[in-house]
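Input chain follows. Return structure tokens only.
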Amino acid sequence: MTELKYIGLVGIILVVVVAALILTNQNLIDTPPIIKSTDKASTFKSLDELKTFVKERSEFSSGRGFDSTMETFATGVPSIAGASKSQDSSEGSRSSDSSQTNVQVEGVDEPDIVKNDDKYIYSVTGNKVIIVNAYPAQSMKIASEINISNYIRNIFVNGDKLIIFTEKYDDSPIVYAESAKIAASSGVDSYMPRRYNTPKTNILVYDISDRTNPRVDKDILADGSYTDARMINDYVYVISTKWIQYDAPVLPAYSINGAVKEIMPTDIHYFDYYDSNYVFTNIMALNVETSELNSEVYLTGSSAAQYVSENNIYLSYLKRINQKEYTDKLMKDVIVILPAEEQTKANNIYDSDKTIYQKWSEIQGLIQDYSDSLTGKEKADFDKAYYETLNKFEEEIRKETEKTVIHKINVNKDVITYMSKGEVPGTILNQFSMDEFNGKFRIATTTGNVWEGNSLNNIYVLDENLDEIGSVEDLAKGEKIYSTRFMGNRAYMVTFKKVDPFYVIDLSNPESPKVLGYLKIPGFSDYLHPYDENHVIGIGKEAVDASEEEVGGRNLDFAWYQGLKISIFDVSDVANPKETAKIVIGDRGTDSYALHDHKAFLFDKKKGIIVIPVSLAKIDRSKYPDGEIPTNTYGETVWQGAYVLNVKADEISLRGKITHQDDDLENKKYGYWYYGGMKEIQRSLYMDNYLYTISQSRIKANDLTDMQELKVLDI
């Protein structure tokens, strides 16, 4: 039995390795690529050179990369930023204190579906932007509507300017002429791009000095999908990505009020790396006041996430190890388990002109034959040693196959300058995985897979040139990162599989970061937010251990998540963080936009409030008369709205609840997603002591003190 067990495992693992190599590319070419470059960005000389580059590099890519959650920009020090104060001269009073979009870095605003200044609310609903005169709340009314033919992604407001981001599709590029001309001059025989629905990023700049009569200043249309944007002072930075048609690349272009500018190959920056899915990444710097635009284009892989500080944009994507590197390392690290004579045979097979499939088929046969030549304990020991060697190889190779590449690009008003490149093992979770502080770049990653039990979590510190100078590695084996928050010289990280290890990590010495302490509690936090320098708010789910009966007797060590949980962590004693307060809302199935989008989270320490949208799920306990409810039982959604919570460092309590739904009968009559969905509260904000909640079809104002309803406006 022992012999069969180990040789069976060896065979399975080898089959998996062979399959991974064969499926990605059966015709591996061992010839080095023609085009060379350094870590610095180079530019192409011609369209033909660009075409050759992407073809050769994509062929060398093994496709062994792992997907990561795709988010966009991030910033480092927690703060609140938002719309610049309105310069509108309309009559009427204004608030003296108003909340703004929840972002990560002061001075770096993030676009959202709702913006506000000290008087107006700007709300996106479908293909419209509604401008609402919202202050005072009792006289709230619609000032104007802007109707757009395309779906609106999000908006910015800067003084008397409204910037709207939409995405539109058509069946042709913006322009063919220049690309066709360049192709012909480069010796390309034919140039006929395929027609398909190509995405375009549409940036509309409106003058809203008269809120009752907005008018378009600039209409900017850029090739490619809208990724995200950031606003720093009076400059908006927009990132879009355009898929490359390998056999006949169409150069990216953009137009301003119909005047087209096409990007030339000599203006496209590239880097020396392999990828199976190249895109043109376009960074545009828009001066809000003058509407002047500058653009730089980079050839990158499909982006994992981008990060923007006050001075730099960091493009990141997953680096995929190519097949030759993989097989070279496999030969070096694994075949050495064989005796010298068998190693020589294996190396001769590998050095032959045979295909990857043939090589590995013969090497597998060689290993099997050698194993079969042994008997008894000698055979069992060999099979076990080989199995362990393969496992070790897979663990080590993960830090090569799962590397995040970062490119640092400086932005200074409309000047965009490439700076440097770095890379770290692992994949990132979202924008909060990255941070810049005192010139250092910090990043949290996960390697391996939770379901295989070999996941590990790490934090790396890179210097100004993106060279690694410090790290904390291999935390929480078998778990993955659920949330990270960098705050000055500290990082807070939550991992989860069964319980929630809340880590406090010291980054005061960038070259020697260390774990100061951690707390294990049930559940997990999807989002972390600073309360003050000694307390952190966590929003996530409660969890209970899975019983053996619930997992069918299998040996699975995990927990079932339950209701929505908001916690306060006290980190004043860094070696012993504590959960000083918590509240659990609803049963399993309860959810909140704030778990997935930090812009849905409203917190104000001075007012002592947290406001979050909640979809409340409840279990019908009458169905369980004996009181024994399986811990994996989902509740039914019975209510949606906003929870307004009183919050202190050691206490969380309910102040009130607000809903936009009229009654349960209407929800049942029309269906929750048809009727209730349009009235799902997605955002909240305040002006002085008025609390406004916003859904796709309604804005409601309540008094923050006693939660009394003041005004309902259908939009």
